[in-house]
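Supplementary Text 2. Reproducibility record for the structural model of the 369-residue chain.

All settings were left at their defaults, and a single model was retained for analysis rather than an ensemble. We include the record here because the model underlies the residue-level annotations in Supplementary Table 4.
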Amino acid sequence: MIRVFEPYISAKDVFSVAKSVLKKDISGSSNEVKIFEENLAKYFDRKYAVCLSNGSVSLDAAFQTLNLKKGDEVILPTFTIISCLAAVLRSGATPVFCDVDNKSWNLNIDDVKPLITNKTKVILIVHTYGLTVKADDFEDLCRKRNIALVEDAAEAHGQKIDTRKIGSFGLMSTFSFYANKHITTGEGGAVLTDSEEIYKKLLQIRNLDFDAKKRFEHENLFWNYRMSGLQAALGNSQLEKLDQIIKNKIKQANYYNKLIKKANLDIQTHPKSFKGIKNHYWVYGVVLNKKFDRNNIMKYLYDNNIETRPFFKPLHLQEAYKENSEKKIYPISEFIGQQGLYLPLGSHMNKLKQNRIIKILNQALQFYL
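Retained model, structure tokens:
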């Protein structure tokens, strides 16, 4: 089976984790966590970083710092992971969905502007599948409208808009270090910010509202969202090779592009760049023509030992969001959510496997014509 992803784990990564074990530096209060936070803040040009147990928790914690109230609105893409919706709902705010661009699969500022009302308190931008939102435009908009900008950079490690790094925009940026991300700690996440007030609040939120001066006295029912020292040790090692990981993924994606063009496949691929922003290919996504049943194609590939993943199901169609009473249609999100899938990409891939994948994909498309 050709797996849809495998992380880039080197001997140095193994040594870094082993060293942490031997030093018994493994808990959430480990010095490795502090070092990882310092390295993240430095790399992504932020003043503060707070490591947490995963990316979904990072979104939750970020929204908890905003003190949103019932009736406050948060604009976000409907084409994204359910963690984004969950964080908004758990904060007490109301989600306001927006469709995405047909090419980048990200929010477009011209689609967002008409959704802004006097109830809009936050805009959540999510960088999707390898291309980024034009975060600089959203930052200017939010500054002028006095709206908080939260940047979900889980899928955009190492990317830039001009010379500015993704993860440095807005009031806060959230990260995931799940196994399939450019850099991984297995699980794990982080919130980055330039606000000292938010930073201090995040430290309390992730650690049961412990106070160093009053150890077992708590004013709030916060959570245990700590990252372990073992995870941080892996993260510190991974961060050093981020640029090489991205280079390898772009190389693999370019070869897929070449094979798909040569085979003249009837599919839409993610562009190599969009509005001057270079695609880093967190995943290699394709969208099938509507005449195909995406699930049939995925099964054909799986039966031939090729694992794939479907695109996100749009948030407004999720059964978990029972409060959603609107009947609005978001055509692009619904189409790519139904017809999109991504192909294997990662440390386990080579040209021989890529040739096989595109050959089998072509067979599947011909079989179901």
